[in-house]
Amino acid sequence: MADIDAWVWWLIGAAALGIPLVITAMPELGMLSVGAVAGAVTAGLGGGAVLQVVVFAVVSCALIAVVRPIAVRQRAEKPVLATGIDALKGKQAVVVERVDASGGRIKLGGEIWSARTLDEAAVYEPGRQVDVVEIEGATAIVM
């Protein structure tokens, strides 16, 4: 054990921190792992034990202080690509059967949907283009 260089121990430490990173998906462990790699580089360049620990601590803390808030912000943002029902809102559809406040049918995205009007007094005849405002269950609300 005494004949193993310090940089090898740092790389073993980096791997030991990387394994739980994969298992738990905690990005902080990855940042500590990068800090251990920085400690290994310092050891490989001939830095003393104190300098290696300082480099490990500075790199790890800097990554946690800078990268973690960015990662948290990215997780909190909603995806730009709308999917499911959200993707249908704002789309145009063609009236297949007369649509009024009590119901009707439209062709939306290549499929026939039940629909009703947003405005109780509005009536749309077959062939007319309408805009989907909302989806309630399996019914499109149009205007």
Automatic annotation (TrEMBL):
Keywords, ordered alphabetically: Membrane, Transmembrane, Transmembrane helix
Protein topology in the membrane: Multi-pass membrane protein
Domain of life: Bacteria
Ranges where the NfeD-like C-terminal domain occurs: 86-142
InterPro entries: Membrane_assoc_protease (IPR052165), NA-bd_OB-fold (IPR012340), NfeD-like_C (IPR002810)
Transmembrane intervals: 7-26, 46-67
PANTHER family: INNER MEMBRANE PROTEIN YBBJ (PTHR33507)
Protein name according to UniProt: NfeD family protein
